[in-house]
Amino acid sequence: MLAPLPDVSLTDPAPSLSPLQWVGMQGIDLPVTVAEPGYWRELHARADVQVDLPAPHVKGIHMSRLYRQLDSLAEEAALTPFGLRHALQAMIDSHRDCASRSARLRLAMDLLTQRPALVTRDLSGWKAYPVRLDAMLAQGVFQLRLQVSVGYSSTCPCSAALSRQLLEQGFLQAFEGQTRVEPSSVAGWLRKHGTLATAHSQRSEARVSVDLAADAPDLGILALIGRVEQALGTPVQTAVKRADEQAFAALNGRNLMFVEDAARRIQAALAGTHAQPRVHVRHLESLHPHDAVAWAEPTDF
Fold this sequence. Notes:
Mean pLDDT: 94
Low-confidence stretches: none
Number of strands: 8
Radius of gyration: 27 Å
Distance between the termini: 63 Å
């Protein structure tokens, strides 16, 4: 007969009698399913999971119990607020002998989706959106927050104005003294000198987070991404041909924005549709060796 295996977390006292706020694991590989209207895909997530340890005499929690609850979450048909709350409650219940009353879970993943080209028919490419879910059940209160990162292009309004001034000066110099100029001559000059000066633009990032309702039918990830991209007007593209690149240049020309403009656009787009939106935008400057950043957060606190 095999001897019972020792469990020092139960038999050995804690060396220092003090409670711990959170104990658990980080960076666990986990397959999860995201299902929304028009979208279903199994994704690779990284999970961080912890419970509280309020009992000062308990030496440690049961890591394997948390791992098994995560495994059960991975077996579910799709992630939902209800399913996440149920998983957290199961983690707490599995640690009654540790007097645990709270649990939290973070899932980080890339939402992979196909995006069509702007103009060219039957042309598309894959784009990954970093997504993070933070769920917590503390003293019976459930909180769930969704964060997405959206890449876009930003063209500086100041740089555009300075470029237009140089173009204006170049045009006046080229046609100085002429009281009548044929449209074909103007068009020819612009075709050759229209890039006399160009505004600087750069790849940029918007990181947006919102609170999700506990009874929401799904996570609403694509809906949030869609609102952010529509507000900015210049989401980065995947597969392009020359016509799509030209269309993208036109979008940039119509959507000149400082980092402050970008943050305010997103803030306005989410007002009234998403709870507690928080916005952080970052323009990876091509003019400077540093980034331009802005934050927009709820003011009702």
